[in-house]
Amino acid sequence: MTFSIIQKSQLEGADRIDAEYYQPEYLLISELLRRQKTQILKNLSNFIKKGIFDLSPDNYRSSGIPFIRTTSIKDPLLDLEEIVFLEAGTHQKNHSTSLQSGDLVFTKIGANIGDLSLLPSDFYEYNFSQNVAGVSVNKKAINFHYLFTYLLSKYGRKQIERRQMISGQGKLELEDLRNLQIVIPSLVFEREIESLIVESQRTKQLSIELYQNAEHLLLEKLGLKDFQTPQDLSYIVNYSDTKKVERVDADYFQPKYEFLVNKLGKKKELFKFAERINTSFKIEPDKEYNYIEIGDVNVGTGEVVFNKVVGKELPANAKIKICGGELIISKVRPTRGAIAIIPDEFNKDFVVSGAFSVFNLASPAKEFLQVVLRSLIGKLQMERPTTGTSYPTITDQDMENLWIPSVKVETQQKIADLVRKSHGARKKSKELLEEAKRKVEEMIEKGGD
């Protein structure tokens, strides 16, 4: 049994008498920070506030001022793949919540409370939603690269975890953020951390560019680099065609779908290209499994993570066992591009949701197929079966019937090489970030730099 004995004088205010707040781990961290030169986050910031209240999605645009929502805060080095934008006018009306590159955003509410991202230099200005806490960093008071890394380290995360107010869904109070203790190191140490974060950002950008090169190579070889779908206002469909697919909704028969398929030239269905895994297995109720669900696939990068879940707590559709190297494709909202190659090291007690179609195939075919399906070739074909429905899903059969262009093995290999280099650069970026966090933690544990 682990317990703490707390003197009345140690209680941090009358509203904090809950035992969880005084766990030994938190007390040790608090004592370690007390011995160091610190400032509260409020004193290192221009402001800490929540974002625009109750902004309708009708205001979202495909370009303009980036608008940060909780769905964007998955990677500490913010992913811009699924970002939405605001018009300049909407942004100006809400200029009090304007942030700049180098500022920080936290998930304030929901399942991933306390998640943190650094706003990149891709854009100068940003804005953010009401479920996000924004920190406008006083860049004259502290190096924002160091501050970001410190808050990602266990000494930042554990403070956030400790201060998190549990009530229903759970939320992170702004006052809790303002009172976070920040260890102030030397300028030399701040610059050392900055160099690691800058290199991590550069390597991540390289990863993005390598993947884009793979997709560009594919589209160029197929003559689809500047592909535009026809915007027909009217079209005629034979009754026999509607009977064949048992669909009569106009959206399904939009000419753009057949136009794309015809542009692919020589092709074959996915089921002739790869074998789908369709074997479920018996879950042991008391065994711990590594579970992958739809939200664990990063649609911007194709990265996949997992959660440890005891068998009896797994969802009913957690039924497909994987051994590493498989290609998984989301059947739910498929056009988002939640398509990933399972890392080879994910080979022990791994289970994926039945909301994925899972295929087993070797390189370079699996990397090639990932690029095809995440490109307009796959997304447009996966869009077609979901038309006319309020909750877009497709079936395993829909997936197996997707048309895959026939491309020379040499080209497939070039695409696969670019994808693997992209994955390697992404891994390196994460390693640099972890190195920066480790250095911050070691500095604090030594009592300063």
UniProtKB/TrEMBL annotation:
**Gene Ontology MF terms in the entry:** DNA binding
Q: Where are the transmembrane segments?
A: none
Q: Which residues form the Type I restriction modification DNA specificity domain?
A: 41-187, 268-418
One Pfam family name from the record?
Answer: Methylase_S
Q: Which UniProt keywords apply?
A: DNA-binding, Restriction system
Listed under GO biological process in this entry are: DNA restriction-modification system
Q: Which InterPro entries match?
A: Restrct_endonuc_typeI_TRD, Restrct_endonuc_typeI_TRD_sf, Type-I_RS_S_subunit
- Please name the SUPFAM superfamilies in this protein's record: DNA methylase specificity domain (SSF116734)
Q: Which family does it belong to?
A: Belongs to the type-I restriction system S methylase family.
Full protein name: Type I restriction modification DNA specificity domain-containing protein
Organism of provenance:
Candidatus Woesebacteria bacterium CG06_land_8_20_14_3_00_39_27
The taxonomy runs: Bacteria, Candidatus Woeseibacteriota
